[in-house]
Amino acid sequence: MTPKRPKGAGAFLKPVESPAPKPPDPHALYAALDLGTNSCRMLIAQPKGSQFHVVDSFSKSVQLGAGLESTGKLSRASMSRTIQALRICQQKLKRHKVKHMRLVATEACRRAGNGAGFMRQITRETGLSLDIIKPEEEARLAVISCAPLVSTKTEQLLVVDIGGGSTELVWIDLSAVPKPERPKAIMRLHAGFHTQDSPFAAAKVVDWISVPLGVATLRDHFDDVEDDAARFALMSWYFEEHLSEFAPYKDEQSREGFQIVGTSGTVTTVAASHLGLKRYDRNKVDGLRMTSDQIDKVIRMYLNLGPAGRRRDPRIGQDRQALIMSGAAILQALLRCWPTDQLSVADRGLREGLLYAQMSADGVLEDGVY
What are 127-136's pLDDT values in tens digits? Predict the structure, then answer.
């Protein structure tokens, strides 16, 4: 007897479809753009708990400050490169229909004689409106971006942001803040360094300074020194001389409860070299703590490689190789000045600070552990 065909055996299986990801609500999106001396970088994100989720990003080396040291102006070529990058940013903002944004320019545009005119040109050609921010706001944004990395044991905190055209240092006293509240006290500085009307125990900004030397400007100062090691030593001592007016520089500090957080491409590159990463991994770098001996070892390796070797080193990268030694010189000067054998590495900076500041001001971040 021929077996009976099971009922429904000829039916087609109904495919199970997973729903397409729902695009984020444009009203919930925030954008932050940082136009620096070397790079144009942007993040688009939405609040998620006490943090944020990145929806889109952009980063491009535009070398806006090229030639600024000698001419005092932004060159046509560097402005053209920057406009091209900003057009891409404008397209991303339009595609995501971003409603909340803060777009800023820093040291190169502050110092350039034609910086304000360039801001007007950007608006004409891209429709974007950028603010040239003051050094204090730049320092404040760098500080709040690093709030999640501040240890609850930290009583004295030094945040260092090594940029292309300037370096911001902020010294914060957290000793009066209860330990569990210390990261949140850092976040509250988005309202200003000298806010005294907070009902919470406040983080006290002891001093801050914006040194007009970053990885590009410091390199340009010693561009005529041919010997690699001599140029490095001169850069490091020259940078240290510019710290003499920074109040904590003169005082002897205790190692106990002291933390330095460094945020910059220099710091993350040194960390990647220390870890021996063949491909950069933010998850392994952000929050890493390096000892001063480990940092010195990486810097000695860079010096032994020489300019040609650094150009070939994939951990440094083409965009960073011309600037890594001036950044390392700044890093070495900082570790020489203050009593710590550890540095916390932050792969975060102005863009993250801009996002946290906007979201905190709008009250869209949950009050939790940062």
Answer: 999 999 999 8
